[in-house]
Amino acid sequence: MTIFPSSAICSYITDGEKDAGEGYFLELANGLQWVQIDLEQEAAIQAVWVWHYHSQRRAYHDVIIQLSNDPEFASGVTTVFNNDFDNSASLGTGSDAPYIETQYGLLVPVAGVKGRYVRLYSQGNTSNDMNHYIEVEVFGTPAQ
Question: How far apart are the first and last CA of the chain?
Fold first, then answer.
């Protein structure tokens, strides 16, 4: 499994730890940021489960989850979650509701959409302008 942007600390988002304490999360700069997971083969994805920083009540802005077989996300992109109500991320206006982060994360049912890459966007939160990821889990089976 490969995670972008490339950094040793990026491994936090797939290490199985869902705690919100120091040393358990990836922090990205302000503005629209993304992380991408390479599943190493195409899969029929059933769900994506994401945890942003949840030790304090906050909601993340412009949370967008996309799947594709193209690592550049230039073609064949399927958006499976989008709460960007005003299209400020310029990836399309979303209709999914904002939510308050909790230790239970956000479970997004996907219903078998095929893809090799999972890209997750965010653009700050209600407490500050930073972007955080604690964990991302992708559930699916190898595509036939």
Answer: 19
* Total residues found in the chain within this entry: 144
Whole-structure pTM value: 0.91
CATH architecture of 2-142: Sandwich (2.60)
To the nearest 10°, the Cα dihedral for 100, 140, 113, 101? 0
CB atoms within 10 A of CB 59: 15
Tokens 């089976």 found at: 141
Sign, CA torsion 83/85/91/95:
positive
Alpha carbon distance 122, 35 (integer Å): 9
Core vs surface per residue 93-107: b (16+ CB within 10 A) or e: ebebeeeebeeebbe
The domain spans of the chain are 2-142
Classify each residue of 20-47 as buried b or exposed e, where b means 16 or more C-beta atoms within 10 Å of its C-beta: beeebbbebeeebbbbbbebeeebebee
Interval 55-70: pLDDT, tens: 888 999 999 999 999 9
